[in-house]
Amino acid sequence: KGANLKKVYKEIERAPQTREGRIEVADRNRRPLLKGIAEPLKLGELHEDVFLLSQHWKNHFGQLIAQTSGAITVGQLRKWIDSEGAMGLPVQVQNVIILMFANQTNRTLYQHGTPVHTDASYTKLEDGLELRTWQGPSEDDWNRSIQYSNLIFLGKPPSSLCNANNVSKLSVDIKAVCEAHLAACQKLVSS
Question: What is the pLDDT of residue 57?
Answer without folding.
Answer: 94
